[in-house]
Amino acid sequence: MPVCLAPGMGLNAYFAYQVVGYHGSGLISYNLALTAVFIEGFIFIFLSLIGMRQWLIRIIPVSLKIAAACGIGLFLAEIGLSSSAGIGVISGATSTPLEVSGCPDQYKDPVTGFCLSHKMTSPTMWLGVMCGGIITAYLMTYKVKSAMIVGILLVSIISWPRGTAVTYFPHTEQGDDRWNFFKKVVNFHPINHTLNILDWNIAAAGGQFALALFTFLYVDIIDCTATLYSMARFSGVVDPDTGDFPRSTVAYCTDAFCISVGALLGTSPVTAFIESGAGIAEGGKTGLTAMTCGICFIISMFFAPIFASIPPWATGCTLVLVGCLMMRQIVTINWRYIGDAVPAFVTVMFIPFGYSAAYGLIAGLMVYTALNGMIYLTKLVTGGYIVPDDEDHREFWTIKPHGRLPWFITAGQALADRLSHGRNKNQNDNTSIRSGESSWKYQDRLNSKASNRELDTVAVHALPTDPSQEKVLRKM
């Protein structure tokens, strides 16, 4: 699949500030937290092999699955518009949750980063909008491949020279640090303190370790599964009959295995990144896209100064455009039945506002269960007399969804059938060999009978009446 994996941003904060804590003041130590992540990965592999994650995707109502993909699209757009990772059009505020931003750095609050004045006057914001947004969308209109990469490179090249209004390296302390790092071009930071430092003294933490492990598990199983399904749906490979995508078990197991590998390297839980939609939007359909991205990340380890110097306003509008593409499927949500429409809307709304795909889907599932559970109880108590007016438009849902069995079960069944067929064939061959002598005797008997029939046929022929023919017959 064209999906990239990296440490999840939501669990990063939980891992760092709640589980480990500032300078190790959290629930458990950093080493024990990595052990919890390592164990979580193998639990994921087990759940994937028995088909639990596939069943979870099939049991989620169709409207909620579509809503999750649309919510992720809005989430990407929100990130692209933010000040920390985008063009800086929106930011936090004191009186409202969000407000219009887009002011130059000198007019921002040094502590909160909120705009104090001169909103929508930032040159970098307008550079990102025009070159990274409008030009990229113009190229996408004509189906130009790598249109998004062209937009990112164009904005980056314009932002690298110093002494301009849109430079990424202003003559400040922070700008000088960025410039000095950028001039190194090639640089590599070795792994000295985070490689394979797991702590297996689990008994010392007790319930705190179990709490951290369970939290990682349930957040990841929703987040990873929903993201993988959304990316598969965005790329158009989801089977409409089974609700699954090809080789899903292998994809889920790979995702789970990378969680454990990431723990050995010292990272928080690895998850499927929603930014993979950018590669899918450029035409990526197979794992070659993911492999190409991985190779680029390996290269970036040695050219970190260059890749780290790509400004956020160069990539912000790209995320907005990807979000636009992912939102196109919102029309397929069942808006005709309120029991499907309201949970779907809650999912779409909560993912960007809650800044988490997992919590957004959980919110939608809770609303779906509560609302449709009350409707079912009302129908049951009244004997089917009171039903919603638009019940005829309700999507079909069952606790036993149809679909394919996990790949290892079907592979085992195929192997068993092959062995059984081979055993039956060997038995038939042995029976033929043991009965070979009888077959020969039976064939000889048939041949002798055939000869007798030929003799009998000759014997019953009438004698010739022509004297010449009679002489020939006597000579014979």
Q: Strands, helices and their partners?
A:
Elements (H helix, E strand, L loop, with lengths): L4 E3 L1 H12 L9 H20 L2 H8 L2 H20 L8 E3 L5 E3 L22 H19 L5 H13 L13 H10 L24 H29 L12 H17 L5 E3 L3 H6 L5 H16 L1 H4 L4 H15 L11 H17 L2 H25 L25 H28 L1 H24 L7 H9 L1
Antiparallel strand pairs: 1-4, 2-3
Helix pairs in contact: 2-8, 2-9, 3-8, 4-8, 4-13, 4-14, 4-15, 5-6, 5-13, 6-13, 8-15, 14-15
Q: Give average pLDDT, whole number.
A: 82
- Percent strand equals under 5%
Shape: globular
| Whole-number tally of structural domains | 2
Tell me the total number of β-strands: 4
Task: Describe the model.
With 476 residues, this protein is mostly helical. The chain has helices spanning 9-20, 30-49, 52-59, 62-81, 123-141, 147-159, 173-182, 207-235, 248-264, 276-281, 287-302, 304-307, 312-326, 338-354, 357-381, 407-434, 436-459, 467-475, and strands spanning 5-7, 90-92, 98-100, 270-272. It folds into 2 domains: 5-371, no CATH class; 407-475, no CATH class. 61% of the residues lie in helices and 3% in strands. Strands 1-4 form a two-stranded antiparallel sheet. It has a two-stranded antiparallel ribbon with strand order 2-3. Strand 2 (90-92) and strand 3 (98-100) form a beta hairpin. Helix 4 runs parallel beside helix 14 (338-354) and helix 8 packs across helix 15. The protein starts with a strand and ends with a helix. 34% of the residues are buried.
Compact description:
It holds the Pfam family Xan_ur_permease. The chain has 476 residues and is mainly alpha-helical. 61% of the residues lie in helices and 3% in strands.
